[in-house]
Structures are given as structure tokens and as C-alpha cells.
């Protein structure tokens, strides 16, 4: 089977919302926001693991998490959706989640079982992407379930760190943080399952076309 360049599914005619056209711009406001979010990852790791400045780390993590939707909203609002932005936004999300998991596990903010469950989902997604690449497809579009899971996790992490850094807030912050974290974990796996189903469907279509041809 010959390799084809990566492609994306076109929106159906029945879709109510027309996406903004995807351009090749690099220096756009949404991309700048994504770059700044990426710079926050090593800063957070330094503050939490080296400087042990937990309050400052909470602020960096909270800003990085709450601005998750800002770059996408601005890109759609200002019609500055770009291919680079479509790569930077999920990359920043995953780096924040992975960096936070590593740091939190090292500081014993979260148990290793929770970290292992999230990392296992990432390995599942990497395997699915590898299969899609083999059949000439790029990454699937981000699903709203995955975005919701990411939002819940990025909201949970600073609250969990607050529960550790401020003993007076440990009870309330711990309950809220773990509630968000567990819901985020469940939806993260639901989104992963949806990506696997989508990848399997695309592979079947390619194989079916090959047999028909």
C-alpha cells in the first residue's frame, strides 16, 4: 500500500458551525500565547522541584491552565487559526500535564498509580497516532471530551498543590482537587477510547478501499 500525505477530514455539510480557515501564519497572538504557555512548563518545574516555591508554582500552574482555552478562542474570534497553532495548543496541554505529573509524583502530591493511569492513556494515544501515520493520516481533530478532560486536570493540579502547600486549606482544596482530578482521568480515558475508535474506522476505510481497488 502506497503512502499518502497526511490529510484531515472535511467538515460535513450538516455541521452548523463553519471553522475558521487554517493558515500558515506563525507570528499570531494565539501562537504567542501558546509559546508563553510552553515557557511556563520549565518555570513551573524549577519553582516546584528546585526552588521549592510552592505558592509561585501554584500561580504559574493556574495561569497556564486557565489560559488553555484563551489561545483557541482568540484564534477563532480573530480568524487566526493556523497549522502551527493546531500543534502548539495540544502540545502545551500535554507538556503541562506530563510535567505536573512528574513533579507531583516526585513531591508525593499525587500517588504513582494516578500518574501511571494518565501515562498509560498517553501511550495508547501514541500507538494510535503511529498507526494513523502508517496509513497516511495525521493526528485526529481534538474532541470536546478530550478538551474537557484537559480542562479538569489543569484545574485540579493547582488546587491539589494548594492542599499540600497550605495546610489550612488542605481539607477543602483536597476534596475539590481530587474530585476534578478523578473526573478528568475518567474523561481522559473516554477521549482516548474515542480516538482509538476513530483511528480504527479510518484504517478500515483505507483497507476497504485497497481491497476494492
Structure description:
Helix 1 packs antiparallel against helix 2 (54-66), helix 2 (54-66) packs antiparallel against helix 6 and helix 6 packs antiparallel against helix 7 (170-212). By secondary structure, the protein is mostly helical. The protein has helices at 29-50, 54-66, 68-77, 83-106, 112-134, 144-165, 170-212. It contains seven helices and no strands. It starts with 28 loop residues before the first helix and ends with a helix. Mean pLDDT is 81; it is low at 1-19. It is globular and about 60 Å long.
Question: Topology of this structure?
Answer:
Blueprint lengths: L28 H22 L3 H13 L1 H10 L5 H24 L5 H23 L9 H22 L4 H43 L1
Which key phrases capture this entry?
213 residues; mainly alpha; 7 helices; 74% helix; 0% strand; globular; disordered N terminus
Question: Summary?
Answer:
With 213 residues, the protein is mainly α.
Q: Could you state the order of secondary-structure elements as H and E?
A: HHHHHHH
Distance between the termini: 11 Å
**What is Rg?**
19 Å
Largest sheet: none
Shape verdict: globular
* Helix content class: over 70%
Mean pLDDT: 81
β-strand amount: under 5%
- Show unreliable segments: 1-19
In total, the number of strands is 0
Figure out the total of helices.
7
Structural class: mainly alpha
Amino acid at each position: 500500500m502506497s503512502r499518502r500525505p497526511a490529510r484531515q477530514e472535511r467538515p460535513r455539510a450538516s455541521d452548523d458551525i463553519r471553522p475558521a480557515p487554517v493558515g500558515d501564519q506563525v507570528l499570531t497572538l494565539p501562537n504567542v500565547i501558546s509559546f508563553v504557555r510552553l515557557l511556563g512548563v520549565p518555570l513551573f518545574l524549577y519553582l516546584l522541584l528546585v526552588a521549592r516555591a510552592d505558592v509561585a508554582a501554584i500561580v504559574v500552574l493556574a495561569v497556564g491552565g486557565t489560559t488553555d482555552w484563551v489561545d483557541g478562542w482568540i484564534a477563532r474570534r480573530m480568524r487566526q487559526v493556523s497549522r502551527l497553532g493546531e500543534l502548539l495548543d495540544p502540545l502545551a496541554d500535554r507538556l503541562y500535564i506530563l510535567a505536573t505529573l512528574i513533579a507531583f509524583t516526585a513531591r508525593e502530591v499525587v500517588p504513582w498509580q494516578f500518574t501511571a493511569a494518565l501515562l498509560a492513556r498517553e501511550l495508547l494515544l501514541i500507538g494510535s497516532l503511529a498507526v494513523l501515520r502508517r496509513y497516511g493520516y495525521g493526528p485526529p481533530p481534538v474532541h470536546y471530551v478530550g478538551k474537557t478532560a484537559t480542562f479538569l486536570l489543569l484545574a485540579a493540579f493547582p488546587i491539589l498543590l494548594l492542599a499540600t502547600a497550605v495546610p489550612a486549606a488542605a481539607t477543602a482544596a483536597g476534596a475539590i482537587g481530587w474530585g476534578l482530578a478523578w473526573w478528568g482521568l475518567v474523561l481522559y480515558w473516554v477521549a482516548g477510547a474515542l480516538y482509538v475508535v476513530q483511528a480504527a474506522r479510518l484504517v478500515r476505510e483505507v483497507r476497504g478501499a485497497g481491497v476494492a481497488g
